[in-house]
Protein 1
Amino acid sequence: MAIDSSDLSEPAPSWFTPKRLLVVFCVINMVNYVDRGAIASNGVNGSPRSCTESGVCSDGSGIQGDFDLNNFRDGVISSAFMVGLLVASPIFASLAKSINPFRLIGVGLSVWTLAAAGCGLSVDFWSITFCRMFVGVGEASFISLAAPFIDDNAPVAQRTAWLGIFYMCIPTGIAVGYVYGGVVGGSVGWRYAFFGEAILMLPFAILGFAMKPLQMKGMSHDKKVYGSLDEEVIEHSSKEHSSYGSFASNQLSRFWQDIKALLLEKIYVINVLGYIAYNFVIGAYSYWGPKAGYSIYQMNNADILFGGITIVGGIVGTLGGSIILDRMNSTIPNAFKLLSTATFFGAIFCFSAFCFSNLYIYLVLFLIGEILVFATQGPVNFVCLHTVKPSLRPLSMAMSTVSIHVFGDVPSSPLVGLLQDKVDNWRISALILTSVFFLAAGIWFIGIFLDSVDRYDEGSEHAGSVIEQPDVMPLLENKPATASP
């Protein structure tokens, strides 16, 4: 039977040019982490109820005051998103092989928007914890799929720099969240901070469904990419499976095979182990930083000061580390050299900062330390993307994200809260926490000596499914030379 050539024609170019794609993903990432900073800010998180020895009691403020939370329960709220992230990340990453990833991002951002609004409507500890879990579901769809899209379409000589720009939005978003939460929470109430986040994310959730979907390197679809999520599922099921049950079974089997493939990549495992130790510290810094700064140095404007340090350190460090790796030649061994060196010296400066009682000495040393530790963001994700074949990149990012949260910032926030409840000294708690940076540097140092292969250009699991990539972004435009920025 003859095949109509029109069925095989290339789809019309998406509205997205590579630069537009980067900008949109950066804004989404920024809003996602503004939420992280806002919930940790003194304006939103607030202070617990307390009573003096003379019997005078305070109602507290923010989430802690309204829901009468101790530090441990308060830390649990900051980590609750991990439940949704843990469950949803592997699911979204696996479905990306059969359903267009851009539509999956639209689904996830819709869930995120509803969950953020739900946080503003919460009435007690359990209701806000439940909503924070679904915030994690929304993040799962985006965080594992955005980086492969960016890596696909960045100029070859600037791949790490483009990833650095994207990951720069993490510390910047957290820092903006401190200020945003402090201002909004302090002026109109903590609930309105969550409502504002939901309004900011809503247009991007709609965009995920409204725009023409995009293809990802290494992903194979049986037919043209559809604009409807339901159409994609039905088409895939009708061609390869007899029922939704067999479809789910096939997805689960493929998922476990992919997990085994990731665990056999020694470089990937070492990279993620170092990232876990690193994120253990960063996660606790981001949540407890304003409170610790207020307690140790009597910062009346702790949200703004700590936010400012994080913005400067995040932008300079993330961009600087990424550009340096590109200049060194973006290879996996060079990435590990940069990771271990920057983290080691960053740990020295951050540890030293907390040893001084003078506020200004602390600010200078801690800023230098932040610049150095944030220099890791581009290189660590470059390793995650380039140690696995293209079809495994969404899952590699998903499992990296799950791992650094499950074993990193999720336990660190309540554990540091528990430690502080015991020692009642924020300086000691901060010094113990910061020492974990040295562990991260040591693990990444091991990676320098392991044999490594950049697998970016390896074939996918389906023959002929990988699209050859010229020096500039081929997946978004048929004629990239004429694309408008």
Note: The beta strands are 50-51, 57-58.
Protein 2
Amino acid sequence: MERSEAYGFSAAMSGAFLLSCLLFAAINRRQRGPYMDEAFHVPQAQAYCHGRFLQWDPMITTLPGLYLVSVGVVKPAAWLFGWTGSVVCSVGMLRFINLLFSAGNFYLLYLLQLKIHLKNKAVSAFQRILSTLTLAVFPTLYFFTFLYYTDPGSVFFTLFAYLMCLYGNHKTSALLGFCGFMFRQTNIVWTVFCAGNVVAGKLNEAWKTELQKKKDEKISSKKGSFSDLIRILQFLITYLISPKNLLTLTALTWPYIILVTVFFVFVFINGGIVVGDRSSHEACLHFPQLFYFLSFTVFFSFPHLLTPAKIRKFLLSLRKHPVQYSLIAVISLFLIWKYTYVHKYLLADNRHYTFYVWRKVFQRHELVKYVLVPVYIFAGWSFADTLKSKSIFWILMYFVCLLAVTVPQKLLEFRYFILPFLIYRLNIPFPSLYRQLLELAFYIVVNAVTFYFFLNRTFQWPNSDEIQRFMW
């Protein structure tokens, strides 16, 4: 990092942290007590603070990573600064843990962009810093920086594991993946993603060697024709049934294999992935979750995905391949018809934006969910088109992980989309400066509206005296 870039990065990170601290103070003045899921997380953390490590709230569905880290930070700080009484492990102090994670995420996002786009010399230092700032204030993640939720810590350890994987430090990556798993069990998927990065790299090397042997320049690991795909699948099967290749891959990914094995042992002993209230967190094949994620991604990345050039290119592709798109449309309609689930929380909790999305869009008419199929197809095409700089093996690996982390979820919850979105966004080519500025401005506006509604547009339920607030 050059000195000017270091100064610019330090200024951006310090400025973002200072503004976050001011916003943090404003939120804690207005909402002093635990809110929403904090009603479960805060008492559990406070029990750990008092040494009651065997006490557990059965309504909590995640492992105790957040509470263990909180105690590990708060207790030494309390001893160092002489804090006593109710201030130790208070709601405000516990929330501040996530503000620290947010600062860590800022730095990790910057380092990841440096590593992923290392060969792209056309990207300026200003663009890297601007992109980091934009992703750091990504609205769905940024909002939960100010509440005691698992998301900032979950993102921190997962991004850290991904960074270590890219640098080839796989034992450290697996250890950090375990920390991420302790924050949210579904993060095991991103451990598989890290292992998949290694496998995709080896496959890509072998595929290039295969092409050189055959001197066939028409086929590339980045092409997408049907015949090319068949040849790639044949190569994939041939490569993976070779004991020598399997031994090589195992030697490279054994730390991740151990962690995934630990996960399956945990699921077997626990009788499932959820540790608490299983009745409200049942796994199912909810394929439309993929469509919701693609729509979510187009919404938050519209400067990159929803451009006139993209639309023209899509229409041209549609005209060239009508049969393929018709088949995709039929499959999508079938998946929506057979595999759409509506969670009871989605219909009952009017504090979440998803409640209004569902009521204002999907519940307008029974046919709306089918009418949106063309939108989903465009979103999927545009999403894939921005990843064409990656190898076909990386794309296949990411897509499998995306399916694994979204489809089993019955509840439509935007927080579940944070990590797949960030990993996608980190891996697409850098857009023009204008589009980056537009994206940042959009995120700032969305955050401003979100926090305005949360702080000022409160309401009460008829059967409760508690103040209710709108949130993601």
Note: DSSP finds 22 helices and no strands in the chain.
